[in-house]
Specification:
It is built from 13 helices and 30 strands. With 672 residues, it is α+β, with helices and mostly antiparallel strands. A 5-stranded mixed beta sheet has the order 2-3-4-5-9, with no helix packed on it. Helix 2 runs antiparallel to helix 4, helix 4 runs antiparallel to helix 5 and helix 10 packs across helix 11. The longest helix is centred in the N-terminal third of the chain and has 75 residues.
C-alpha cells in the first residue's frame, strides 16, 4: 500500500473525552487500535520499498486479499468513533486489492513469457532431433548399402576385399553397439553446448573417449581436428610416444604413435634385439628411461641400454653404441630372483635411474649405485671421453663397467628366520618420515618370499633396520609383490599367493597393516591350477596371472570382481604380468613360450589378444609405450621395439611368404 500505517486519531481530540467515555467503549476502542496496529505491522512485510530500506523485514510478496477484508471490517467498526480513521482503513483496503490485481496480471504475463520460451526451446530441440534423424537415416542407408555390397561380394568370392568397405560381421557389431548406446542414460546434451564449452569437455577426455566422441558427428570431429592443445594433453598425460612435436603439430605426433606404434603392438610386429648377457637363465628384468637391467641364476645383475626414446633429437656419435651391455653388478652368492631400477624423478618414467636393487631367495638384498656410469645415451654422447679407449680414465664401451654396491641387507623374519627378499617392489614416492624426491633415493620396499608363513614386510629406506610394517605369516607362499600406483591404492601392497588369492594390505595402518578385500583366481581345473603366479598394479587397477594360463584385471575400488571375464591368454602357466593404465595395455608371459598383449578396457566384445612367440618360456616382462623387455629360460635378454622405422624389413613376414611360395610351387619342377 502507498500509505504507511499510522496510529488512529481517535485519541487526539482532548483528554476530557477519555475521562467522560464509558469504560466498555474505552476497552473496545483500545482493542480496535491494537488490531489496526497489528494489521499495519503485517502490511510492512508486503511493502517492497519498506523491506529494502529496513533489512530486518523480509519481503513476502503482494498482500493477500484477506487483509483487505480485515481492513474493511475494521473501517466499519471504527466509523462510530472516528470517520477519518475509517476512511484511511478503506483507502488502505482499496490499495491492497489494487496491488493484488496488479500481481495477478504480472504473474499471468510471466507465465505467458515462460510458455513462449518453452515453446521456442521445444521447437529448437525438435529441429535438432530432426537433423539428427536425417543424419542417422543417411548413415543407416550407407551401412545398408555397404552391407549389401558385402553380401554381393561374399556370394561371388566368399570374402569381401578390405578396400570396398567393412565386413558384415563388423557392421553387425557396430549396429549392436549403437543400439546399446541408445539405452544409456543421458546426463546432458553435448551437441547443444557452444563450441567453446564442447571443446573444453573434449580436452578432459581420454584417448578412448575422445575417439568414440569424434565418431558421433562431423562437428565433434572438426573440433578435435582443429584443437592442437587437446592432442598435446593426450600425448603428455597419457604417457604416449613420442613426447615431442612432429612437423610442428601435436596431432600428427599423436597419430604417429597411435597409427604406427599402437598398430605394431596390436599386430605383434616388433624389431627384435637379443642381448646374450648371462650364462644361466634370466629370472627377472626391469626398465626405466633408456636403461634396462636383468637378473640371472648366474648370480649377476646386467645393466644394458634400450633403444633411445627420452629425447627427440637423433644420436650421431658414440651414442649409437648404446644398445649393448653397459654395466654389471657382481656380488651375490645366490641366483638373483628380482630386480628393480629406482631413483631419478619418480613422476617421470623417462628420467634415467640412479639406483638398482636386486634380491635373492636367501633374503639378501643389495642396492647398487649407477652414478658412476652413463644412464642416458645423450649424456654419454656429450661426454667426449666415453668410448675413447685411448684416453686415460675414459669409459670403454667394449667392456661393461663394474657397478659398486652401496648397501647390503639380509631380510629375514625375526621369529622364524625365514628369508623374504625373493620378490619385492619399490615405491617412487618419498618414504615414511623421509623427504623424498632427492633424485638418489626411493621410498618403501615391500618384500616377501615363496616359503609358507614368511608373510609380507615393508621397509623404510630412509632408516634401514627393522620393518615398519610386518604382515603376519599365512599358510601360503608369495610369488609376486606389487605396490598400488593409483589414486585409490597408492599405499596398498598386493601379494600373489600360492593358494590362488591376491592379498592386499594398507600399510598406513601401524604394526601389521590393514587387511583389505582380496581377489582370487577362481579356477579349479587340474592340479595346482589355482596358484596366482604374478601380480602388477597401476592407475587404480591390478592384474595377476594364474597357473591355469588366464590373466585377471581388477579395479582397486571393487577388488572382488574382475573388469571382464578372465581370458586364458596362455596355454600354460603365466609367469609374469605387467600393466600400464595410461597406455591401456596388459602384457603377460608364460611357459607356453609366448607374450600376450591385451588392450584396456577388457569389456569390449571384439577385444583380441595379440600373441608373440619366443624361443623359450618367458619368466619376466617389462614394457613402456614402444619397448618390451623379456627374460626367458635361456641366457638371452630380448628387447622388442615397436618403433620400426622407415627401412625396417619384417623377417618373419618374409619367411612366412617364402613358406607359402614353396607350398604353392611344390611339384612344379623348374617353373621358376
Amino acid at each position: 500500500p502507498g500509505h504507511g500505517p499510522r496510529a488512529m486519531t481517535m485519541w487526539d481530540d482532548s483528554g476530557s473525552d477519555e475521562d467522560e467515555m464509558d469504560p466498555e467503549e474505552h476497552s473496545r476502542m483500545e482493542a480496535l487500535c491494537r488490531a489496526f496496529e497489528d494489521l499495519c505491522h503485517e502490511l510492512r512485510f508486503h511493502q517492497k520499498e519498506w523491506c529494502l530500506r529496513n533489512p530486518s523485514y523480509k519481503y513476502k510478496g503482494p498482500a493477500p486479499l484477506h487483509m483487505a477484508d480485515r481492513l474493511e471490517a475494521l473501517a466499519r467498526d471504527v466509523r462510530s468513533f472516528a470517520e477519518e480513521d475509517s476512511d484511511l482503513a478503506l483507502q488502505m483496503a482499496a490499495e491492497v486489492r489494487a496491488d493484488h490485481l496488479a500481481a495477478q496480471v504480472e504473474a499471468a504475463r510471466l507465465q505467458e513469457v515462460e510458455a513462449r520460451v518453452e515453446e521456442t526451446e521445444r521447437r529448437r530441440r525438435a529441429e535438432v532431433e530432426a537433423r539428427r534423424e536425417v543424419e542417422r537415416r543417411k548413415e543407416r542407408e550407407e551401412q545398408a548399402r555397404l552391407a549389401e555390397d558385402a553380401r554381393r561380394a561374399a556370394g561371388i568370392r566368399g570374402s569381401l576385399d578390405a578396400s570396398r568397405g567393412p565386413s558384415v560381421q563388423f557392421l553387425a557389431k557396430r549396429e549392436r553397439a549403437r543400439l546399446q548406446a541408445e539405452k544409456l542414460p543421458t546426463l546432458f546434451d553435448l551437441d547443444a553446448l557452444p563450441d567453446e564449452v564442447a571443446g573444453a569437455v573434449l580436452r578432459q577426455m581420454g584417448a578412448y573417449e575422445l575417439a568414440a566422441t569424434a565418431c558421433c558427428n562431423k562437428r565433434f570431429r572438426d573440433l578435435a581436428r582443429t584443437d592442437d592443445a587437446l592432442w598435446r594433453r593426450l600425448q603428455l598425460t597419457c604417457g604416449r610416444h613420442p613426447r615431442w612435436r612432429v612437423d610442428g603439430s601435436w596431432r600428427e605426433s599423436f597419430f604417429q604413435g597411435a597409427e604406427k606404434i599402437d598398430a605394431n603392438w596390436r599386430r605383434g610386429k616388433f624389431r627384435r634385439l637379443e642381448h646374450r648377457l648371462h650364462s644361466e637363465y634370466t629370472a627377472c628384468v626391469a626398465m626405466r628411461g633408456d636403461l634396462g637391467c636383468s637378473g640371472s641364476a648366474d648370480h649377476d645383475l646386467a645393466i644394458f641400454g634400450l633403444p633411445p626414446r627420452a629425447r627427440g633429437t637423433p644420436l650421431q656419435g658414440v651414442g649409437l653404441l648404446w644398445e649393448r651391455q653397459i654395466g654389471r653388478c657382481v656380488g651375490h652368492g645366490e641366483p638373483v630372483t628380482c630386480c628393480k631400477l629406482a631413483g631419478g624423478d619418480g613422476d617421470d618414467a623417462f628420467s634415467p635411474p640412479t639406483l638398482a636393487l636386486s634380491g635373492t631367495a636367501k633374503g639378501e638384498m643389495r642396492v647398487w649405485s649407477l652414478s658412476q656410469m652413463p644412464t642416458c645415451p645423450w649424456r654419454a654422447e656429450e661426454d667426449e671421453t666415453w668410448g675413447d679407449m685411448a684416453t686415460p680414465g675414459a669409459h670403454d664401451t667394449a667392456t661393461p663397467q663394474r657397478v659398486p654396491c652401496v648397501e647390503t641387507r639380509l631380510l629375514t623374519t625375526p621369529e622364524t628366520g625365514q628369508p623374504h627378499a625373493q620378490f619385492f617392489d619399490v615405491t617412487a614416492g618419498c618414504s615414511l618420515g623421509g623427504d623424498g624426491g632427492d633424485g638418489g633415493s626411493f621410498g618403501l620396499v615391500a618384500a616377501a618370499g615363496a616359503e609358507h608363513g614368511a608373510g609380507v614386510h615393508v621397509y623404510d629406506t630412509a632408516r634401514w633396520g627393522a620393518a615398519c610394517v610386518r604382515v603376519p605369516g599365512f599358510d601360503a607362499g608369495v610369488y609376486g609383490v606389487a605396490w598400488g600406483r593409483g589414486p585409490f591404492d597408492n599405499n596398498v601392497v598386493h601379494a600373489a599367493c600360492s593358494d590362488g588369492i591376491v592379498r592386499r594390505w594398507d600399510v598406513r595402518a601401524p604394526g601389521t597393516g590393514a587387511r583389505l578385500d582380496a581377489a582370487s583366481v577362481g579356477e579349479s581345473t587340474g592340479r595346482n591350477r589355482r596358484v596366482a603366479r604374478c601380480v602388477d598394479a597401476d592407475g587404480g587397477l591390478f592384474a595377476f596371472g594364474s597357473a591355469f594360463g588366464s590373466v585377471h584385471v581388477h579395479d582397486a575400488r571393487v577388488p572382488n570382481a574382475p573388469l571382464a571375464s578372465p581370458k586364458r591368454a596362455h596355454s600354460d602357466c603365466v609367469n609374469a604380468v605387467a600393466i600400464d593404465a595410461k597406455l591401456g595395455r596388459v602384457v603377460s608371459g608364460g611357459d607356453d613360450c609366448g607374450i600376450a598383449v591385451q588392450r584396456l578396457p577388457l569389456t569390449l566384445e571384439d577385444a583380441q589378444v595379440t600373441f608373440a612367440q619366443t624361443p623359450q618360456g618367458v619368466l619376466s616382462v617389462a614394457f613402456d609405450h614402444s619397448r618390451l623387455v623379456i627374460g626367458c629360460e635361456d641366457t638371452t635378454v630380448r628387447v622388442f621395439d615397436a618403433e620400426l622405422g622407415e627401412g625396417f624389413v619384417d623377417g618373419e613376414a618374409l619367411r612366412q611368404a617364402m613358406r607359402e611360395l614353396n607350398r604353392r610351387t611344390q611339384g612344379a619342377g623348374s617353373i621358376l
